[in-house]
TrEMBL record:
It is an enzyme of class 3 (hydrolase). Its cofactor is Mn(2+). It comes from SAR86 cluster bacterium. Coiled coil: none annotated. One of its GO terms (biological process) is proteolysis. Transmembrane segments: none annotated. Residues 412-431 are annotated as: Disordered. This is Xaa-Pro aminopeptidase.
């Protein structure tokens, strides 16, 4: 097990941590679905990024002083009985030997040791408000550190959310290779679904197909609860019931992506249950696809995150005018936001360890500029629910297309292009 990559990430914090400060990163705790039935443990993404360590209720303290970075980890203690029930624990010795921390303690010692770690520092940084109960813990440790004796320094508490998120914004080669794999697995699952849907009659059956296709390729977990939405269900943006029967005349919108070795993928495809788009479905689909392609073209170094957003709004506005769903001047309609009745969400989000990954969208007062190594989704859509005041022929059509786009030195690479989005290619795959 080579955990040097995580050690290097910790050391790289020298550049961004203030002098004489301590950064705290709490790990995740076990979560329970009901009674004592636990979910499979998922480490907190910040914690994982800086440690590679996957045991619950752990904590990292990274101390930056004039001698450089030193790293401390609190981990579950070795425990013969618990290890029989729950599996191997590295313990403090394993945390130092295998995970390359400078020092390690049992997590039972946090409350006694932490005030001493914080004592004498100028600042304690952590992601404020992100872990239940942790804010009060930091306040308590900081108060105790500051009252060790009358002349103790006062310690400022600073939010580290941006510092931690922005450290994860540009993916290194190791991360990109894992995300390529996650994207490949998800793309292959979407292809299998397109090939099979004609003989499947329910959303739930489709959901199970994705789980199976992900899992047999190594993506045991889904990066998020999938949306498997037949017909008008696609117009409920966060539809996750996935329990209705499919009609042959419906489009099926599936937003599903696996997690592979902790990294997310996030793909949406919309395809006809019958294998053939109707005229109206195709007209809407082609507008979304045009918006998609125009938006992807805008993902390149130097452009900012609002450029794909804006072009997608303009293409959708013009398309809706073309087919008579909006009337008026494109510029005026864009300015007034008329498209929002049909396209009400944003074009995308950062993707990485989390599906809605950490990292800021603004740099000071400006929108974030794309830089090589960033990965964003691009996911325009048009949703026409039956409660809208439009001709009946459009009602119940919901279309979204979503790909995962890596920013490269010269432009971008679509990591999920393996699964077709061109309607002719989809129909031919389904035939
Ligand atoms: N699958 C979640 C999203 O597309 O944002
Ligand atoms: Mn997404
Ligand atoms: Mn999605």
């Amino acid at each position: 097990m080579d955990n040097t990559i995580y050690k290097n990430r910790r050391n790289s914090l020298k550049e961004s941590l203030p002098e004489n400060s301590v950064l705290l990163i709490p790990g995740a705790d076990m979560q329970y679905r009901n009674a004592d039935s636990a979910y499979a443990f998922r480490q907190d993404s910040n914690f994982y990024y800086f440690s590679g360590f996957c045991e619950p209720t752990s904590l990292i303290a990274i101390v930056n002083n004039k001698d450089g970075i030193s790293t401390i980890i609190f981990v579950p203690p070795k425990d013969k009985l618990r290890e029989i029930w729950d599996g191997y624990r590295a313990g403090p010795i394993g945390a130092v030997d295998d995970f390359l921390f400078d020092k390690a303690y049992d997590n039972t010692q946090i409350d006694t040791v932490m005030p001493d770690i914080l004592n004498g520092s100028n600042q304690v940084l952590y992601a404020i408000g992100k872990k239940s109960g942790f804010d009060q813990k930091v306040i308590d440790w900081t108060t105790q550190a500051g009252s060790k004796d009358r002349h103790s320094k006062s310690i400022n508490i600073i939010d580290a959310s941006s510092l931690l998120g922005n450290a994860r914004l540009i993916k290194d080669d190791h991360e990109i290779s894992l995300m390529r794999k996650a994207c490949d697995i998800s793309a292959e699952a979407h292809i299998e679904a397109m090939k099979s849907v004609k003989s499947i009659d329910s959303e739930q059956h489709i959901e199970s197909l994705y789980c199976n296709e992900f899992s047999k390729r190594g993506g045991r977990f889904q990066a998020y609860t999938p949306i498997v939405a037949g017909g008008e269900n696609a117009c409920t943006l966060h539809y996750v019931e996935n329990n209705q029967n499919l009609k042959k005349s419906d489009l099926l919108l599936v937003d599903a992506g696996c997690e592979y070795e902790m990294y997310a993928s996030d793909i949406t495809r919309t395809f006809p249950v019958s294998g053939k788009f109707s005229d109206e479905q195709l007209k809407i689909y082609e507008i979304v696809l045009e918006a998609m392609n125009a938006a992807i073209d805008q993902v390149k170094p130097g452009n900012d995150i609002m450029q794909p957003q804006e072009i997608s709004e303009r293409v959708i506005t013009e398309g809706l005018i073309r087919i008579g769903l909006l009337e008026g001047d494109p510029e005026e309609l864009h300015k007034s936001g008329a498209f929002k009745e049909f396209y009400m969400h944003k074009i995308g989000h950062w993707l990485g360890l989390d599906v809605h990954d950490a990292g800021d969208y603004m740099e000071g007062d400006e929108y974030m500029k794309f830089k090589p190594g960033m990965i964003t989704t691009i996911e325009p859509g048009i949703y026409i629910s039956s409660s809208m005041d439009v001709d009946d022929k459009w009602k119940g059509i919901g279309v979204r297309i979503e790909d995962d786009i890596l920013v490269t030195k010269d432009g971008n690479e679509n990591l999920t292009s393996k699964v077709p989005s061109d309607p002719k290619e989809i129909e031919s795959l389904m035939s």
